[in-house]
Amino acid sequence: MAYQDIIYATDNGVATITINRPEKRNAFREETLDELIEAFRLAEADREIGVIVLTGAGDKAFCSGGDIAWEHASSPEGAHQLARRTTTLAMIIRGCGKPVIARVRGYAVGGGNELQLLCDLTVASEDAVFGQSGPKMGSVPIWWGTQLLPRLVGEKRAREVVMLCEQYSAEQALSMDWINKVVPAAELDEAVRAWCDRLLGMSPQALRVAKLSLNFESDQLWPSVLHGYQMISFIHGTEEFREGTSAFLEKRPPDFSRFR
């Protein structure tokens, strides 16, 4: 298929999927998610591909999460459609038997951070930034954020990340075991390719079994994701939700005081 929001490229056993919306800090919308699903399916089915790299176009962002203008216009019905797409994408990334590496330059926040959490490995540049922004926007990172983050950084730290909505440098994220590796921006592609080449030298079926086995315990958190989506659908489209998205679009602090 012809892609509008992503770029799909292959090179010596590696499929690179690039979210190509740099003017939106690579925020995703319905079309982006549909294209990501298709690209991951294509890479999974290609016997010449041994490793998949997920990244974002430009040097400003890996992915900044959902497109706020799109989410602002959303309704509970739209939230259900979003849930179907994001859950499908997550299942493909985690269920694919091939290693998936997140190549992170710039912001990986909100749904963008959840997206890199879904990948098997994360290599980031020194100027990368990580964080969640759900409650600041009238939302919650239930798309594997509240499920996977505590397993990596610990429950208390995860509550800090999710509830305070602060942002963290790549070095801070590395020190918390949030990500795997940090390198200077000029060395990012080289570092990612080195890990790809190392993985390509491994037994593909052993890697497949290792990935599925490593996912076994966290796969049992799947009901939490489904329950979270059902609960968050009662928030999307409400006045409280729109206060968060309106504040972002209007570049002002949100005022949630009347909703307490």
From TrEMBL:
Domain of life: Bacteria
Gene3D superfamilies noted in UniProt: 2-enoyl-CoA Hydratase, Chain A, domain 1 (3.90.226.10), Lyase 2-enoyl-coa Hydratase, Chain A, domain 2 (1.10.12.10)
GO molecular function terms listed in the Swiss-Prot or TrEMBL record: 1,4-dihydroxy-2-naphthoyl-CoA synthase activity
InterPro entries in alphabetical order: ClpP/crotonase-like_dom_sf (IPR029045), Enoyl-CoA_hyd/isom_CS (IPR018376), Enoyl-CoA_hydra/iso (IPR001753), Enoyl-CoA_hydra_C (IPR014748)
Family matches, as PROSITE patterns: ENOYL_COA_HYDRATASE (PS00166)
Any matching Pfam family: ECH_1
SUPFAM superfamilies tied to this protein: ClpP/crotonase
Similarity remark: Belongs to the enoyl-CoA hydratase/isomerase family.
Protein name: 1,4-dihydroxy-6-naphthoate synthase
Organism in which the protein naturally occurs: Amycolatopsis antarctica
